[in-house]
Amino acid sequence: MQSVIELAGLGVRFGKRDILKDLTVALAGRTIGLLGPNGAGKSTLIQTLMGFCPITAGSARVFGHDVKRETNKVRELVGYMPENDSFIAHQSAVSFVRMMAELSGLPSDAALERAHEVLYYVGLGEARYRQLGTYSLGMKQLAKLAQALVHGPRLLILDEPTNGLDPAARQRMVRLIREIKESGQMHLLLCSHLLRDVEETCEEVLILKQGRIVHYSNLEEERRANKSFVEIETAGNDAGLAEELSGLGCNCTATGTGRFRMLLPEGFELREIYRVAAARDLQLRRLSHRRDTLEDIFLKAIEDGHGGL
Amino acid sequence: MAVYKRTYKTYSGPRTLPWSRFLILTRFSYTRLFQSKFVMFFISACFFYPVGCLAFIYFSHNVQLLALLSLGDAKLPPVDGKFFFTFCKIQSNLAFLLTALVAPGLISPDLANGAMPLYFSRPFSRTEYALGKITPLALLLSLVTWIPGLILYAAQAGLSGWDWTKQNLWMAEAIFLGLITWVTILSLISLALSAWVKWKLAAGALVLAVFVAGAGFGAAINNVLRTHYGGLISLNQVVYTIWGELFRYDWGGQLSLSQAWFVVIFTSAICLWLLAKRIRPFEVVK
């Protein structure tokens, strides 16, 4: 599978300060989450991919195109929604998105048609004729998303798309991102402080800290792997339960009174646990798959600092 | 695809030529500019003097009409270098006011609203952006300066005959070169200032200040230090020196032609540098 983003020893320096250091990764997922604390270099990485920041070491490729040498080609393939307020004053949303489409190379008529379509798609409907200056923050975010989508990019880069949105607007934005993901027509790179947004929408996460990659994981795979990790809670005499379950091939350990954690072998049927419990006349109060949340992954990565690929 | 269908499709149609895309900014700038009635009125007002000059050229060649108006013996001023020098002076001042009115609205709103990343996240370079922003201003200024100037020259040539045209071809060159220099320097200075001052009104005021205060300071330096080098910071004096040479007319300035061209080139270079520093997809915070 072709990599969407490929970084090879990427380094970016502003003045004497290294902002990105030796980033090496190949991302091929449909939706990629970019996480990290403030100042980790997330926005710089995005700006580097857009060709805004000079690369001082290594290389970055988007769909195989070198960001440094084929900047215009990369920009044709990418739609970018910036983090901060970005719009063109004294223009209606239609006029704004149409202009952006034309700057991406669409002929005037096609640009106008697609501006209408895409503004309708993001949910600006009749508001698309209003001046951008009169929009609420949520509407401005949607207009920014529309301009990023209008030229039909293959990769959509969203920098803090839910920033400053109220819960309803956030939900709408996340739903839209999920719809875009499910349409299967483009890849997404989502940079957000809100782990929940990333968890709800992304397949892969890349965590940066102080300009370095501290963790990369495929959330889908991790979720699949986590299915074999089970926690149970019992009531009654559970002496010998851990040994019996271990005898069935589980790696079982007691974590407290009536609490056990086990790693199930491949092909293990959960009903075996119920059978053993029933045979011992043991109440099974809770059985749950233990799953690392993105927050767990994030905090662990940030604490470790130099976790790796 | 119909508008009512709330679906998304990628675009796979034809694309425009990359070199022509700077004209998109020009088109959108004009659309917004011509929405202002005051700008439209001012542009119209800029044509009053050229129309008057055209009428004068026509009258001065119409013997019957002059006789009818009992002006047959009146000594009308000739259409020569001085005539066109005066035309350039008047139109250049109007062009300056037009610049102060139009230019601040070109770049400063983009900077104030953080629009730069939107432009440069597309296959669109900083040079194309600057070109797209300078073109509407330069075309508008051309419309009120050298284009009517050449029309006047053509009218005079048409009415005076081929001999006059051949002998005075240098005037057409002077009109074009002299006013295109003014248009270029006005556009560059106003655009550079517009790029550095995010507030539109302040940018307009600064454009006025640079020209007016420059002339004032220049005069003050000349008077206090009893020199003529103060003229180097007065762009009007600088450009009049160039025009005086081009129109073969002594307007009374003391700067040399080489000094005047040096100031023009130096100022343009500074403006280009300022634009290059400011027109970026993001701001570097130190």
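Chain A touches chain B through 50 residues (CB under 8 Å).
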